[in-house]
Amino acid sequence: xxxxxxxxxxxxxxxxxxxxxxxxxxxxxxxxxxxxxxxxxxxxxxxxxxxxxxxxxxxxxxxxxxxxxxxxxxxxxxxxxxxxxxxxxxxxxxxxxxxxxxxxxxxxxxxxxxxxxxxxxxxxxxxxxxxxxxxxxxxxxxxxxxxxxxxxxxxxxxxxxxxxxxxxxxxxxxxxxxxxxxxxxxxxxxxxxxxxxxxxxxxxxxxxxxxxxxxxxxxxxxxxxxxxxxxxxxxxxxxxxxxxxxxxxxxxxxxxxxxxxxxxxxxxxxxxxxxxxxxxxxxxxxxxxxxxxxxxxxxxxxxxxxxxxxxxxxxxxxxxxxxxxxxxxxxxxxxxxxxxxxxxxxxxxxxxxxxxxxxxxxxxxxxxxxxxxxxxxxxxxxxxxxxxxxxxxxxxxxxxxxxxxxxxxxxxxxxxxxxxxxxxxxxxxxxxxxxxxxxxxxxxxxxxxxxxxxxxxxxxxxxxxxxxxxxxxxxxxxxxxxxxxxxxxxxxxxxxxxxxxxxxxxxxxxxxxxxxxxxxxxxxxxxx
Length: 528
Prior knowledge:
- By secondary structure, the protein is α/β, with parallel strands linked by helices.
- The protein is built from 20 helices and twelve strands.
- The strands form three sheets. Strands 1, 2, 5, 6 and 7 form a five-stranded mixed beta sheet that branches. A five-stranded mixed beta sheet has the order 10-9-8-11-12, sandwiched between helices.
């Protein structure tokens, strides 16, 4: 029992309390009750704010003798349940608040949040309290998710997640097989392991949990196939304009002449032609892409792109014409030009009277082709990029927009290679939808028989991991929960400006997931 008095000022609320004499208290060493008072001393505690004012508790407690002669303690200080903790100058409620804020916002952000709550604590103190929070006991999961994430620069880390509870277990720097194998041997009992196509994780799971069923994640399988389709579209870039709707004969002749022309007229085309000839000459002599890149001062990916191209037109950059506020006035400009008005200044004034807010130079550039006897440069739809073409092919037919349904058949009719890739993608999608891997061997053979290098390489990689691929197709297990947790890891890294070490990052990632689960499970009290 406590005797309490309260003092309120503009700056702080002070509560003075005193424990009653005569009531026995348990020894902090052996637990035996004792009422033999030795002396008293005053403890000063901080508590959560009250009425937006800091709350200070001045508590007078007894120091008691321990009457147990075998106890190592001679005297001990009594504790008030729910109010005091040994060696702690914060109440349990305030300590939980500091720890939760530190888990959610880390050091600097946590310090600022506590300052809003009228609790002054430095960022170092917040981090210290955060690292004092013990991690929850690790329970070996039956279904384990393994995935990597970018830690910083070219350094990667490994994240383990319980796929059943969707809670992170641990993370560490690196993505080697030995570390994963050691962790699995120290925590036996994993029955299913979901992973991507990484050889390191495959070897680590085989070494650490040889009886576990390995599952190659469906998302990564689909992502790998989509990338191969994009590579095919990049290699057949010249076919992509065929997806556009047909245009009139004159414009069609101009487009065909521009596509089939072998003369480099613009600066970008001449640059692409020079690089294409240089790269092709060096690669035909047997040089590797890396050595060619060093000699020409180019990136290795650029060299690979020029080496794969059949002609320089496939790699030249053709920036599309961007939409302009003048587009809706082009018909009026053509009409006035035909009527004999050839002054760009007067035309600009007339357009301003009609609501045009653009600059005079835009009008001057628009009518410049008319002065040369050429048609006005009307906006045209640009061809799809290789990435867009791959997205068209990999999108489910029922989810394709009318825009895609109008253009994709033209593209597939014009390019047999993309037609083959489209058919193979749809067959693999059918296996995923039906969870049936019976046709997988035949599908892999068809990948090889296409003669397309990207699909042949994919078939080789999937055959080496065929059992896990079949499990990924037929079983409901996947690494989707890992992808969500990796997004959370990246968020925590950005909150800490990327300066968090692995130990602090592991502490926050594990604790923040349990903290969210704890508050999500608490019932919501609605106001009356």
